[in-house]
Specification:
7 strands, alpha/beta
Length: 312
């Protein structure tokens, strides 16, 4: 894992426009919010009082697992700034009401389609949550405090984050904590109970100390498989299977729009018959649920799915 000083310097360089693009390619950018319908698949799993390993991404998976009673979590992610974003997001959850939270964190399609939020990451908003962030995690406080001192919030947002982001109406359907004001108030108590351990590492390249992994009841790989070969998904399953408890579940990949017949133009992981051949026993459960109109596909009848390994 890179040291704090290196992570901060790389972030400063990127915001200055002189950073090495290789340091912020693909999953090295922070995802502001999830691109999955998390509420669609989490009810399939009993995660209450269980131990989970999840990719970090936007950290919405972490928050939503907490909403379902899972407080003991390990987060692994290739992005070097996932930890800092987690604590910034938690500070926002604790300090803001739902409207203020969205005003601060949202940029694309806010508040209406094709409109950008000129107040994203405003200095006023940061100063409002600054003391809370300092108490949560001092390194994360130093990281964001330095960036907000040197650059505009908009510059930070555009430099370190992806532009893949959906409108408020979609986020409210994807994540239960953003569904309404009551849910948002509920999450304030929940996030303070989440025990969070972060591992910076790439599950494909295995560039981290695997001794940091524990034993888990639930493992979530998000949609990493959609960006890699099916063989890579099997390699990740091989790596993590020894850390999955008996009767535990591993979400191998999130798939979009799985009711359409597979075509050769699709990513190979959408060829479910081939997946079964390659993944073998790892692909023994498949859960489908209603997708969300506007995420990937413009169809209110879209079915998304998760490929799951249920360990017997």
């Amino acid at each position: 894992m890179e040291t704090f000083d290196i992570r901060l310097q790389k972030a400063i360089s990127k915001c200055s426009g002189i950073g090495n693009s290789d340091d912020y390619h693909n999953f090295y950018h922070i995802y502001p919010f999830s691109t999955e319908n998390i509420q669609g698949y989490l009810p399939y799993f009993d995660v209450k009082n269980k131990k989970a390993l999840t990719v970090g991404s936007s950290l919405d998976q972490v928050i939503e697992l907490g909403m379902y009673g899972c407080y003991d979590q390990t987060v692994i992610d290739a992005c070097p700034n996932t930890k800092e974003y987690f604590y910034l997001k938690v500070a926002g959850l604790l300090r803001f009401n739902r409207k203020q939270f969205l005003d601060f964190f949202r940029y694309m399609d806010y508040p209406d389609t094709f409109l950008y939020n000129s107040q994203v990451f405003s200095k006023e908003g940061f100063y409002a949550l600054r003391d809370t962030l300092r108490l949560l995690d001092y390194e994360s406080f130093l990281f964001w405090d330095e960036l907000f001192h040197m650059f505009s919030g908009k510059k930070v947002r555009l430099s370190l984050f992806t532009t893949e982001e959906y409108g408020d109406n979609l986020l409210q359907q994807q994540m239960s904590y953003l569904h309404d004001d009551e849910s948002f108030d509920k999450v304030k108590d929940i996030v303070t109970n989440i025990h969070f351990q972060f591992i910076q590492g790439d599950l494909i390249y295995k560039d981290f100390d695997t001794n940091l992994l524990d034993s888990y009841d639930f493992i979530h790989l998000s949609n990493i498989g959609k960006w890699n070969k099916v063989e890579d998904v099997k390699a990740m399953a091989n790596l993590l299977n020894p850390h999955l408890n008996i009767s535990g579940n591993m979400v191998l990949c999130y798939l979009y729009n799985t009711q359409d017949p597979y075509e050769t133009s699709f990513h190979p992981i959408y060829n479910l018959e081939r997946d079964k051949e390659i993944l073998g026993e790892y692909f023994n459960s498949f859960y489908s649920f209603l997708g969300i109109d506007g995420i990937k596909f413009k169809d209110n009848k879209t079915k998304d799915s998760v490929m799951v390994y249920s360990k017997k």
